[in-house]
Structure formats: C-alpha cells, structure tokens
Amino acid sequence: MNLHQFYIGQAFDAYDFFGAHLTKDGVMFRVYAPAAEMVEVIGEFNDWESGSIMQQDGLSGIYELEIKDARQGQMYKYRIHKKGGYFTDHFDPYGFGSELRPGTATRIVDIDSYQFSDEEWMKGRTKNFDRPVNIYEVHAGSWRRKETEAEEDDSAGWYRYDELGEKLVDYAKEMGYTHVEFLPLSEHPSDQSWGYQVSGYFCPTSRYGTAEDLMKMVDLFHREGIGVIMDFVPVHFVMNDYVLMNFDGTALYEYDNDAGYSEWGTCNFNYYRGEVRTLLQSAADFWMTKFHFDGIRMDAISNAIYWQGNAERGVNEGALEFIKCMNDGLQRRHPTAMLIAEDSTNFPKVTHPVEYGGLGFDYKWDMGWMNDTLDYFRIHPNDRKYHYHDISFSMMYFYNERYLLPFSHDEVVHGKATIVQKMWGEYDVKFQQAKTLYTYMYTHPGKKLSFMGNEIGHFREWDERKENDWFLLKYPKHDAFRKFLKDLYSLYLNEPAFSQNDYNEEGFRWLEVDAVDERVYIYERIAGDNRYIILLNMSEEEYHDFEFGYDHKALLHEVLSGERQEYDGYYDGPRQDIPTKHKGYKWWGYSFSVNIPALASVIYKVDLVPEEETASTRHIHEASLEQAEKGKTSRHYN
What we know:
The chain is 24% helix and 23% strand.
C-alpha cells in the first residue's frame, strides 16, 4: 500500500498492510490511531495482559508490532489509551476474523490460504447489461435452519457458509436465479440489524463460519454457474464502543457534530477524511478480490448523497467525491463486476461513468417503480382507473438510468405485509393478482431482484429468527404460485426480448396505454425478430374481442398465463393462435382481437408474417382467424 494514497483516500488495498498478517516468525499487527497516547495488543498469546506495546512510525499515526508467539486462530484486541487517562479495547478495523457474538475479539486469519477453482467463471463474467439478471436476495441465517432442540440459541440452527451453499445453489438453479445476493455478511453485533450495523468491514460474520467457509460457498456457486453479490454498508457503522466510534479518543471515522449520527442509531462515516475513504473503498475491493464476489450492492446511498438522507439539508460533496473515487477505482480493478446502488433519490447520473459526470454505478434500484407498483396493486380494481398511469409512469423516466426492479426484504417487514398480502382482495384473488404483478415485473425492462419467500407466497412477514415457511408448498395455491414463477423465470432467462435491450428504447413499446376505463395495458418487448406481447388486465371484468393495433401482419402464440389451471387458475380453454385482422385500428395498419381474463396477464410470442404471403401461409393465417373466432369463451367473476 502507498501511504500517501492512504492518507488522501486513494488507496484500495489497505487490507494488505493493516490488520494482523502472518509472517515467517509470527504475526505483524498494524493499526491507525493518530490521536492515541499509547496502543497495545492484548490476546490469547499474552494471556490478555498489558505490555505488548506497539510502536508508532514517526508521527504517522500508524502503530505496529510483530509478536512471535501469536498464531493463526488466536483472538486479540487493540488496547487504545486515550487522552484523559482511560483506555478502550477495540476490535481491529481491518480484522479478518471474529469470535461469535456476544464476544467482541478479533481472530488472526490467513486470508490467502484458500485456492479458488472458478477460473472459467471469472474469465467469462460480465456486467450483464444485455443479459438476464434474476437475483434471489437471501438472509443467510433464515433461508433454511437446521433442526435443533436448542431453540433459545439461534446459532444452533445456522448452517455454515459452505453447508448453506450446497443447499442454496441447487434451489437457485432449479428456480432459475442467475445470482444470489446476501444481506450483509460483514461482522455485526446484533442479529436484529440483519448485518446493516457493521462492526467488521473486512470480517465475514462468524455466525456462519470462517472466511474460508465463505470462500468455499462462493466457489461452489461459481462452479454451478450462479453469481454472488455482497450487500455492503458504506454509509454508517454501529455505535458500540469497541468498534470505530471514538476510536483513538477522537471522531476519527465519524463526524464530530450532529451529522455524525444517523436515523438508525448509528454513526455516519466522515467522507472528508482520506483515511475513512481508504477504509471503505478497500473493504469493497476486499470482498471482490479475496472472496470473488461478482458484485457489490451499496446500501442507503441516498443517505450519502444528501446530508443524513435529507435533500433539504443539501448535497454532501465529500460523499459524492468518495463515491466517484470508489466506483471509478473498483471499475478499473474489477471491470466485469456489478456495482449496484440502493438509492431512492432522483439525483442525476447515478449509473453514468465517472468520466462523464456520473457516480459510476452500473445499476440503480428503481424504488419509484417498486412503490408505485405495490401501491397500485393494493387499490380496489374499480378505483384503479383513477391511478391508471401509476403503472405506465416508470417508462417515462426509465432510460435515464440503468434500473434494477426490486421486491426486497425491506418490503416484507415492520408491518408492511408480504408481497402476496399487499394484493387487494381475499386469498384466491391475492394469488391471481400476484401472478399478474410478477408477470409485469419480469416483462418490464430492467434487471430483477426478489427476496426469499416471495416465490412461495409467504404470508408471514420475514423474521430473521425463523426459516422460510416452506410448509406452505403443501398448499395448492402456494405450490402453483412457485411453479408459475419458475416458468416465468425460465421464459425470462431464455428469450432475448426480455433482457437484451433493457436499456435501449428499441426494446420496448406501448401498444395500448390509454384503456383507462378498462384498466388494460398492452406492450411489446423486442430483440430483433424475438418479440413478445404482454397483456395486463387490472380489472375484475373479462374482456371479449378486446382490440388493439399492430404494425405488422402477425400471429400470436400464447406462452404463459397465470390464469391457466396448471397454475391453479380458472381457465382451461384451448391455446389458439391469434392472427392479425385485415383492418387497421387507430393509427395502426393491423389489429388483434383477444380475450383477456379478469385480473390476469397473458404473454404471447409474436410471429411476423411476411407481407408477400404464399398461398399456404395465407391459408394458415385465415385458418387461425377462423379457429380463434370459434374458440372464444365467456367468464366473469368478482
């Protein structure tokens, strides 16, 4: 590490210098504490007694000491003597291992001992701008739990990282997820924080095993063709006195005024200090370099852009410079990894390159789409005509950024209700609409993310102490819902129209976005000749002979509808091909006439028919039209 870069916030490899590193003779300890009166290392190697005094290199603020009796796996802390005659025992800010909570000691870990076997994966990895991205967001401690009688001890039910990976990778492959995104795996003292109040920025939480166990898990996912994303918290840290707060007797990592405190009862990082920027961007680099994570999802970016997340307080220029520096450096070091912002603001150019005035992220969560969509599905169908364009609004701004559509853990906790619960109506109707909701999500431009349990129609809000309610799959509605999502995911993964042109305006167009009274939306996804038309009916009425225009002679082939009986729906009519009619509609040269089930969605594959038809082609087209007229059915329900 270049020390000058460390001080000015340009270093990305500080973890190679600071912390506890094995040497030929023992272990070298280094820590930065410029205002300390004295720093000692205490640990298992010296019976936790004072006396192992670290030496400062000049006036650098960097203290170091090599201890020959120290060994891998032993625990230690830094005893930092502060002005005023008191001391505090601290966790190593660059520590690679930890004892299990409620213990607070750091462990000596050889971070380079594991040998990955994912060369092929790493060589072929991309940012997936023109590929499907279907992310399964997971909390490692509650996806599945071991059967144990020790219910009072949560740790008894946790799987180790590598054990969890063996179970989770098979499920991800079966369902059709391209990536698994874990809620923060950095060390944290409280289970209830879900990892968002971090104590160890370079330390995998000991709840689920060691650093090597985590590396084995990532390696396994890669061998099976699944990417792994790390949830990273660069905005705030836990206030416990053994961590970063008041580290050397001063506000070394936090602001020394009211801006130092967040709405979550944590300390905000002071981005105006180079040493702080170095720690954070080195941590982001650490997870991708040492653990081969395929992406970093950065939490609460809105609280960095604006002072304490409030636009009225103004832009935090120091935070913007940090974000730009970090993302620019990470893009250079990891050009095929994904950098994802959880940002609820309308701050411009979040996903534009730094050299073009942007913040340098690859993707941004579309929180506006998520809120508008879920609010719409809560509304009684009769009232949706008054909110019709809440659904279409997202495409008014979509191409401003590279958006990712999230139904995350934040939407299924704290009294917000689960995704299925949010749907208007009673039990059956909720599932009906949830299938339409997910059809809309997976055919809308943008990459996708959904939290664990959403796919089985969870009715209980997520609780980090309990595993998913997998028993729900014994019930037909829940089992059929998961089957529908599995087939929807398969369609999304295998048809280029749904991902290849996500961020190209040629990949999407509205065919009907003015049917306010009917509450019907029709749009097309396009990738060359790979075309699909999607119909969404948000009303309780079934529509017969619903007409909409098209600019080519074509045939529609139904490929997926949640209303089919195989998905516990109500419709079992024939899947007829639907041809264009030889008449125009509005400004279109041709038209389709379709039946649309109530509160339902239908996905059609489009086959374009050449204008210069042969006799046989014309015969097929006319036969399809006749068949469609004969096959019309009638259904209405409330």
